[in-house]
Specification:
Rossmann fold, Globin-like, alpha/beta, six-stranded antiparallel β-sheet, 3 domains, Elongation Factor Tu (Ef-tu), domain 3, disordered C terminus
Length: 376
């Protein structure tokens, strides 16, 4: 991402508090302005069943918290650009959104909206869109794939295993995630991570939990039927980078966040000399863990893999601290560490690992900027 000067960065940091405190107002004014000036874009932002649209502020806040993390910011913007290809967006669409965003930001800032702050936001938006458009232009693959549901199995009351087969192979690398749209929730996209590497026959396997108040996940668990057609966006994410490490690995996964870790372990299985790998796997029960952990030690002999379950003890309902359990077991300063799970769990885990002295370059995660605070 193009570098902003220090004055602009300081202005944006101070602006973050206003964005965080007035997210609903910002989002409402953005969409009102956008649809007044570009009504044709209304179909790209459908109302959810509760009458809401995508919470723009969540993505802005995520980006504002990473102003000093240039590489991560650039990588995530590139992923967003590639993913947005499925909507057919053009530079003109992004320009209209940028104008609406500046009007909405001016509204929530009131008298504190100065020409310098306006210029800082305009420069940041221009730089971000440049990264997104460049990544989209460089991506030569399809903008989306079609897949047919071939199997749907209820693993628990709120948990399902789903198998989808795409009409043509999808170039998915182990640990990457995909955006999916299902016929039961048109216009609402959700991110899922396959639990195994891509197969030549186009088969993708997923674990999905229905989140309370979720917009898409309850339908995925309860209403999906074999024969349903899904629309699937391009593979995204940087977790496959962990496969090239020269260090030993620590994998930390919670619930359906174990899906990409399953895929990474399956990929390591194909290496001649896999690194020593320690998996700490958290779930609500031993039965649930067995359902979610597709690469456990019982599946095959893996002398390089150690699996430590983290499940509730007798008389409790929640597993112990995933990171705390790992940190009490040994020192991990010389390992690459992969963290997967709900967005807030990832953020808390990364904070704990930073506090424990783990260098940032040894930490791998894929927090989704559009998933923060969203129940899908």
């Amino acid at each position: 991402m193009e570098t902003l000067d220090q004055t602009q960065l300081d202005l944006l940091r101070r602006s973050r508090a206003r964005v965080e405190n007035r997210t609903d107002e910002l989002t409402a004014r953005f969409y009102q302005t956008l649809f007044e000036h570009a009504p044709g874009l209304r179909t790209l932002f459908p109302l959810d069943p509760n009458g809401r649209r995508a919470p723009l502020a969540d993505t802005l806040i995520w980006l504002l918290h990473r102003l000093d993390q240039r590489r991560e910011l650039t990588d995530r913007l590139a992923d967003l650009g590639r993913d947005h290809r499925k909507h057919g967006l053009t530079a003109a669409h992004y320009e209209a959104a940028g104008q609406a965003l500046l009007i909405a930001l001016e509204h929530i800032h009131g008298p504190s909206w100065t020409p310098s702050l306006a210029h800082a936001w305009a420069s940041a938006y221009t730089a971000a869109i440049h990264e997104m458009l460049a990544a989209a232009a460089a991506d030569r693959g399809p903008a989306l794939w079609l897949g047919r549901v071939v199997e749907h199995q209820r693993l628990a009351a709120d948990l399902a295993g789903i198998v989808v087969q795409t009409l043509e192979p999808l170039p998915h690398h182990p640990g990457q995630y995909l955006s999916i749209e299902i016929p039961q929730r048109p216009g609402l996209w959700r991110f899922l991570s396959p639990i195994e590497p891509a197969r030549p026959d186009g088969v993708l396997r997923f674990h999905v939990r229905a989140l309370p108040g979720g917009l898409v996940s309850p339908a995925l668990v309860a209403r999906i039927r074999p024969g349903d057609t899904w629309r699937i966006g391009p593979p995204l994410g940087r977790l496959p980078d962990a496969l090239s490490t020269t260090r030993d690995l620590l994998l930390l996964g919670q619930g359906t966040g174990l899906a990409p870790l399953n895929a990474l372990i399956a990929a390591l299985d194909t290496h001649d000399d896999p690194p020593r790998t320690h998996l700490y796997a958290a779930a609500r029960s031993k039965n649930e863990l067995r359902a979610l952990l597709t690469n456990g030690p019982r599946d095959r002999h893996r002398p390089w893999l150690t699996v430590t379950p983290v499940v509730p003890s007798a008389g409790t309902h929640r597993p112990g601290s995933l990171v705390g359990t790992a940190l009490r077991a040994r020192v991990w300063q010389h390992h690459d560490i992969v963290v997967c799970g709900p967005p807030r769990m990832q953020a808390a885990a990364l904070d704990q690992l930073h506090a424990a002295g783990i260098p940032a370059e040894q930490l791998h995660s894929d927090p989704l900027p559009t998933s923060l605070a969203i129940r899908r």
